[in-house]
Amino acid sequence: MPKGIFRDSSPLTKLTLSGTIIFISLLFFYFVGILIVKLEFHTNIEDLANNGTEEFVASHAAAFKLFQVLQSIGLFILPPFIIGYLIDKDSLSYLNLKKRSGVYAYLIVPIIMVASIPFINYLVSFNEGIQLPSSMKSLETWMKEGEKNAEALTKVFLQANSWRDLTSNLLLIALLPAIGEELLFRGILQKQFSELAKNHHIGIWIAAFLFSFMHFQFYGFIPRLILGVILGYIFYLSKSLWLPIIGHFTNNAMAVIFYYLYSTGHVSKTAEEIGTQPGEIYLAFLSLAITAALLFGLYRSEKKVKESSSSQ
Questions:
Q1: How far apart are the first and last CA of the chain?
Q2: Which domain, by its residues, includes 224?
Q3: Is residue 105 domain-shared with residue 236, that is, in the same domain?
Q4: Is 57 in contact with 64 (CB distance < 8 Å)?
Q5: 253-276 pLDDT, tens per residue?
Q6: Which end of the chain lies in a sparser environment, N or C, as judged by fewer CB atoms within 10 Å?
Q7: Is the domain of 108 the same as that of 89?
Q8: Which residue stretches of the chain are H helix?
Q9: Are 110 and 213 within one domain?
Q10: pLDDT in tens, 108-147
Q11: Is the pTM of this model over 0.85?
């Protein structure tokens, strides 16, 4: 197909095209992953998915990691570039990967993510305390079982006994998801839902909702939703995809590094525990206020950069 063939299509057509490409790519890489895991590790992916014990996951960690990498490529990384190619003659421009921001923006985004930790962690604690009605007991049991399996997988992925393991985890767990998920959720979905709704704020919240929903973890849904909203506003305010990628990487990297330091005895708690201890609720609201102030600072900074560029 020629470059930019869908450039003048309606927002709904672009969104439908994007959904189709994402689905086909995900399906293709899913079956490729099944085949490679079968040939390389002599096991079925169904066995990996259905047996969520930490011991089983640990014994098949390499297979899990390889399958995850393939799924990340198939779902998050490849589709946005195909979509960008079909909608715009320049995929990088369509994905906002050519937009430059001011130096201040690159410095403040990691600080925003650090500042938001206590508030996000407070939401984690709040979300975990939600109980469904007794009539939905079976659903609650199913969700808790899924959460348990996801936790077992996360622990194995985060396990690191050396600096080499830590570096590998930073690439696999922090950098790859940061690039891939921002390409899809902010670079494609937020933009297209904003065009469809003719409202950037609606686009931000829908993309954040999908970002959280696609992790399939109910007891982490609210904090992940708010994390997606923060990344969404960073993208909206800067018009550069590199800034939410940096923010996403910072968030993931902090979890990886803190878990490594915790497991090796260098710190007494993980990043997820900051702000969740009794008497620390004030940290959550202070965190929220600082995060909002820093986002406003990013807005002012990017506005000055834009005005400066326009005057030249």
A1: 38
A2: 99-302
A3: yes
A4: yes
A5: 998 998 888 887 777 666 666 766
A6: C
A7: no
A8: 11-41, 45-50, 54-59, 61-72, 78-87, 91-94, 103-115, 117-128, 137-158, 163-169, 176-184, 191-197, 200-213, 221-238, 242-263, 281-311
A9: yes
A10: 999 999 999 999 998 988 888 877 787 777 776 767 776 7
A11: yes
